[in-house]
Amino acid sequence: MDSSGRVITRYRMPTLRQEGKDKVISRLLKAVAVIISGPEYKVEAIGVGCPGPLDSKKGIVLSPPNLPDWRGVRLKKIIETEFRIPVAVENDANCAGLGEAIAGAGRHASSMVLLTLGTGIGSAIVLDGKLWTGKGGFAAELGHTSIDINGPRCGCGNRGCIELYASATGVVRRMKKALKARGGAMTAESVFLASAKGGKAARRIVDETARYLGCALANIVNALDPEVIVLAGGMAKAGSGFIDKAEKEMRGRALKESSRGVRVVSAKLGEDAGIIGAAWRAKEL
Length: 285
Ligand SMILES: [Zn+2]
Hints:
This protein is of the alpha/beta class. The protein has helices spanning 21-36, 75-83, 92-103, 163-166, 168-179, 188-196, 200-224, 242-253, 256-259, 272-283; strands spanning 46-50, 54-55, 60-61, 87-91, 111-117, 121-127, 130-131, 228-232, 263-266.
């Protein structure tokens, strides 16, 4: 990425995490080497987006749920030792949020919240062009704010986290429960498709999901009074009024003063958001 936030070149490879962290890291270093060897620019710093939670100051991976063998990996040190230029390591959801704030749907906004509705719910808070990372770097875990004290137990230890309802995984879980179905290949996409085709059970699940999400958005709006809320991930693209329904629910619940003027929009940059956000973190070093 250049200093204005424009992506100059990219190199893509599969993670293949089942091969273990050492092989993944060695592939990662090879990918960086390919980018650095480009003759038409000089790379001054490297930004890395990585699943959290992590210690972004020291660049140490702490305990990512989907990469269990990465606990304690000193990613910043490994990459700095190899390439001898500054390295920034940041939570991937924060990178996506920062990217959208700099060059995407949150551009020109003074405050922005990003929610990525995927396997879980990733989120980021950007205030005055800067990530809000909290006292220890763990801020903006909005997917783990509870909307039901008696709700199902979440992997984080809380109950009724919004991630259990409005993530793609949550939609499938609730649909299977409604149909009393076990196993089988169901995706959130297929539930949204069935709803669009008039399937009653699917329609109910999708409408409920929009209400759950709207409730979470109202909590965010009341807490932060943001200018823009950006929704990313497959479900944000589902269309057919899903975001509109969530927004309507939010406006019915949030304080009038803070919900007035807040915009709820879809993300613009796709996976470039994470690239731009990570590189911007490196630029800030
Ligand atoms: Zn949780």
